[in-house]
Amino acid sequence: MNILTVDNLSKIYGKDDNEVKALDHVSFTIARGEFVAIIGPSGCGKSTLLHLIGGVDRPNGGSIRVDGKDICMLSDDELAVFRRRQVGLIYQFYNLIPILNVEENITLPVKLDNRQVNKDLLDKLIRYLKLDNRRHHLPNELSGGQQQRVSIARALMTRPAIILADEPTGNLDSKASEEIVTLLKNTNRLLKQTIIMVTHDFEVAKYADRLIKMNDGKIFEAS
Amino acid sequence: MKILHELVIKDLKLNRKRTLGTVVAIILASALLCGVITVAVSARESLISNNIQYGGNYHLSLAIDEGDIETIEANRDVKAVFYRYKLGMAPYINSRGEEETIILLSYEAEDPAVIGYKIIDGRWAKNDNEIVISENLTKVYELGQKITLNYGDYGSLDDANEERYLKAETFEIVGVMDNSMHNIVITTGHINDNIEVFLRFNDPWHYRESLNELLGMEFDPDNYYLNEDEGRYTVEMLNKDLLRLEVFDFSYVYLQLIISSALAVSAIIVLAGVICIRNSFMISLSDKIKTYGILKSVGATNKQIGQMVKYEGLILGVFGIPLGLILGNLGALVILLITRELLKGRFDIVFQVSVSGLIVAAVLAALTIALSLRKAAKVAAKTSPIANILQNGEELSARTLKIPRFIEPIFKTGGVIAYKNLKRNRRRYRSTVISITISVLLFLGMSSFVYEVTRDVKSNMGTDRYNVSLYDIPDEETLTEIKKLDGIEEIYVGRELSGRRIVVEAERMTAGYLEDMDNYVRTDYSIDLLADDEYDAYCKELNIDPDTVKDGVILFDKNAGAKRNTDLKIGDKLNVIDGDANIVDSYEITYIADIGCGDKVGLHYNIAFYLPSDKYNSDDYYTSVFIKAEDPDAFIGEVEKIDDMIRYYNDAEYNRQQMAMVYAVDLFMYSFLTVITLIAVTNLFNTITNNVNNQQREYAVLKSVGMTRREFGRMINLEVLFYGVKSLFIGIVLGIAASVCFWQIFNYSGTHAYVLPIGNIVLVVIFVFLILFIIMRYSISRIERQNIIETIRNDSV
After folding, report:
1. Taking 60 as the threshold, does the pLDDT of residue B413 lie above it?
2. In chain B, whose CA is at the least distance from the CA of A85?
3. Residue B462: predicted pLDDT
4. Is B760 a residue whose pLDDT tops 90?
5. What is the distance between the alpha carbons of residues A215 and B265, in angstroms, rounded to a whole number?
6. Distance (Å) from the alpha carbon of A99 to chain B's nearest alpha carbon
7. Backbone angles phi, psi at B624, to 5 degrees
8. Interval B46-89: pLDDT, tens
9. B184 in Cβ contact with B194 (< 8 Å)
10. CB B100 within 8 A of CB B137
11. How do beta strands B468-471 and B647-650 pair?
């Protein structure tokens, strides 16, 4: 069953002479439990595509259905709720809240939803991501790899429909990169978590089950 | 170094809003300092101007002979500004038909205004056939009239054998002087040997030495008697007030008040200014700390980095301070013009800008900037290059970000983030809280001060108090006529028995009285006489039969707290003494009243004795009348028609003067408060907009993980709440303490209960939250609609 259906999606930046077609009528589907890597050169529109799927930006045309719901029709507040419940975003530069500690950053989407934190799940995630002795540390007290693991934990905490990872290894060394991608792979395998990962690094993309290649805002190969 | 200076200027230009914030703070602080100094200088000049206007522009007057003139003129320490010749005295008949004396004076060519004479009608005499009379004489003479004066030296009026008149002369009245000189006429061209010379010291700062040199003796200006004969000349008058003002003698109470107020206010301004400007520089520093790190990594020394910060201060100061000085002087001018209107006809206000004052203001403003950027320069210079590159000036740790346990359960995640946002930069948080707290404290303190001053002044006026008082009532017939006039709401006639005092032994005073009077004991009191009708009316008020009490004194004995001042009883006999303290009579206390006879006109004495007046003639007592008139000005006009020799005191006019002074004080207070508040608001604006700008990415991240706009708005509101609650709590507590202090200072009589300034507290709470809310909303409005991902990306680059 398809968890994500993208149909005829377009995104344009700028106006008139400065107009740039970041996405040009892109269509594809992703089944539940897939680990998909979107690969392409810098500026091909892969990150734009990811952000549209994550609801942090709006397309100029087309539709995006996540778990059957067309998110392009949602209001800003509905999109915010969608993001906190249905999507887990992992960024290249971690984007943790510097004044919240590890535990607080991980549980942030749950608390924003005014729900009780599942302590078992939290403990499991912290153990799984090897953050046991960093629980009450602030982001400035963590290494880059540790921060990215916190970011992954935050994304997993709400058991979202899809995890979207935008260049998750872009700011890490090779060892940490391997760790992170392996984690994502294991998460996909063990928890059947659907993951869409954007990368320009083919070595990283190899971990995925499927590759979608992009160029100039279009998908030219999906395998 | 040139490249670094160029960098500084470029940064200032690129970050216009931040630069503007700092410049506004500098301008406000400079303006306020300059304004205070200009007002203080103007206040001193106004005092000097009024002193000269009413007292004359001279320091010293001496009685000399003609032969002394040359010596005086040759003295390099003094300059003669006026010579006045005492021609003698002349009799005249006043409007009551009584004989009084006029003093006849003369001068040469100088303007008599230099010794404080003021022409109010006509002109000064130009030749020896013309005179100018004092205003009170217009009841008998008029402008243009020719009068003959028989004048000369003479002694007591009672001495009929004295050779009275030496000369008879006819003069034409060409002018009228103000009534500050009573019964004076002045002409010109008459010279004799009875000279008074009016002098100014060429160097007032060394007037004591000049005085000793002139008189040929050690002259004590603080302890002398007029016409003392020990020196070379007789000192008639030493204009100490003018001298003290001119030489900044701080023993002079008015100067003390001006200087101490200016110093206190300047200290507050410097404190508020330092906090605000320092905050601005620290904000600027935190924005540029990466740049400094990069500069250091390519070889800039710590000293050079520190110099950059100082150069920024210099640029902003050079731009902001002159603007501030101009604005400050303009502000002072506006305030002084308004005050001049308020005090028109009572006190002349002079606007004076002094160059040294401007320099002092500029130096203080520069000092404020220097103190403010000292810390920023140090921090910029000392932090390691890599720390600068990596950090944004915040030092986050679990300890610094600890929050009270009740925050999360009550305020949820938004509240946690809001509270931690306050704590992330403790220095900035502290300066913001202090800014708000100072403004709250000043507002509550000043408004309490104004309230107590106004209450004190108004209680002395009192709506239940007399507004006209009359003196020198010649006889009971005149009094009867006055009593018949329209517009009298209440009247009390005080007939004080002359030359007689009733004695109360010190031992009869209560402990309460002694405490109120600080153990000062007064043992003799005047005796008030009441006419028959008044006595009967008073007894009726007391519910007693006048016949049972009229053979003795009625004692009124009650202080402001309705307690007895003495332990005297009915039946006690009290002695009456004369002017030489001889016992001449005694009276028995026949009744102790709890209502004073003068209470109905607000004339309250703690202890008073009343007797019926039928035992005495009108020559035995001195009559004063206290009236609550519907229209005091009109009433006085009617009294003057009955007898223009009656002295009157228009309390309503006095009350108007008092209130005008109170309004003037209000004006200064609230003007000062407004500018201090503006400095605080500027500080708040800089801090909050900067915080919001720095946290744009975090706000975008929060939205990306699912914070709705409403939740975001709630989080911002909570940040406002946390800022406001802490500042207000401290400010209000200190403000209440200040209001209690002012109440105690002004409540020396113990009559006023303390009033908690609830209205002002509510006002200040509303104002603080409103300002914080507006600033927050303005800061957020720009980033609210920003694209999430663009914000995250831009900040990551």
Report:
1. yes
2. B706
3. 59
4. yes
5. 69
6. 6
7. -125, 145
8. 988 888 888 889 999 998 888 889 999 999 999 988 999 988 88
9. no
10. no
11. antiparallel
Q: What is the mean pLDDT of residues B236-244?
A: 87
Count other C-beta atoms under 10 Å from residue B205's C-beta.
Answer: 13
Q: Which amino acid is at B796?
A: S
Residues of A in contact with B393 (CB under 8 A): none
Residue of chain B nearest A163, judged by CA positions: B705
Question: What pLDDT, on the 0 to 100 scale, is given for residue B157?
Answer: 44
Q: What is the pTM of this model?
A: 0.74
Cα-based distances in Å from B68 to B62, B73, B491: 10, 9, 57
The total number of residues written for chain A in this structure? 223
CB proximity list for B345: less than 8 A, separation 6 or greater: none
- Confidence check: pLDDT of B794 > 70: no
Under an 8 A CB cutoff, do B789 and A77 touch? Answer: no
Output the pLDDT for position A42.
86
Q: Is A109 close to B424, i.e. CB distance below 8 A?
A: no
Mutation to test the B interface, candidates A42, A97, A101, A116, most B Cβ within 10 Å? A97
Where do we find the tokens 């100014």? B200
Quote ipTM for the complex: 0.84
In this predicted model, what pLDDT tens digit does every residue of B161-219 receive, in sequence order?
A: 455 556 788 999 999 998 666 788 888 888 888 899 999 999 999 998 998 888 888 88
Question: Which tokens belong to B469?
Answer: 């008082």
Nearest to A109 among B412, B706, B709 (CB): B706
Burial of B38 (0-12, 13-18, 19+ CB in 10 A): buried
- DSSP 8-state class, residue B425: S
Write out chain B residues lying below 8 Å of A82, CB-based: 706
Mean pLDDT of the region A156-165: 92
Beta-strand pair A69-70/A61-66: antiparallel
Buried b (16+ CB within 10 A) or exposed e, B585-612: eebebbbbbeebbbbbbbbebbbbbbbb
Q: How far apart are CA B307 and CA B305, in angstroms?
A: 5
Contact residues, chain B, for A163 at CB < 8 Å: none
Category of B424 on φ-ψ map: left (φ > 0), alpha (ψ -120 to 50) or beta: alpha
**Separation CA A27–CA A9 (nearest Å):** 6
Contact by Cβ (8 Å): A127, A183: no
- Give dist(CA B498, CA B650) in Å, integer: 25
Determine if residue B124 is left, alpha or beta; phi over 0 gives left, psi from -120 to 50 gives alpha, anything else beta.
beta
Using DSSP, state whether B89 is helix, strand or coil: strand
Q: What is the pLDDT of residue B485?
A: 94
> What's the one-letter identity of residue B277?
I
Identify the residue with better confidence: B604 or B91: B91
Q: Is B784 exposed, middle or buried (0-12, 13-18, 19+ CB in 10 A)?
A: middle
Q: Mean pLDDT of all residues in chain A?
A: 90
B708 and A96 within 8 Å at the Cβ level: the answer is no
CA-wise closest residue to B646 among B477, B528, B461, B460:
B477
| Chain A residues bordering chain B (beta-carbon distance below 8 Å) | 51, 54, 56-57, 76-77, 80-85, 89, 91-93, 95-101, 104, 108-109, 111-114, 136-138, 140, 154
The two structure tokens encoding residue B99: 């004989």
The predicted model gives A93-115 an average pLDDT of: 89
What are the structure tokens assigned to B352, written together? Answer: 């004076």
| Alpha carbons B36 and B357: distance in angstroms, whole number | 10
Q: What are phi and psi of A13, to 5 degrees?
A: -110, 145
- pLDDT digits over B415-427, tens only? 999 999 888 877 7
DSSP strand pairing (B607-612 vs B621-629) = unpaired
Q: Residue B414's closest chain A neighbor by CA?
A: A112
**What does the alpha-carbon distance between residue A129 and residue A109 come to, in Å, rounded to a whole number?**
18
Q: In sequence order, what E strands does B403-519 have?
A: 468-471, 488-497, 501-503
Taking CB atoms and an 8 Å limit, are A98 and B412 in contact across chains? no
Q: How far is CA B791 from the centre of its chain?
A: 55
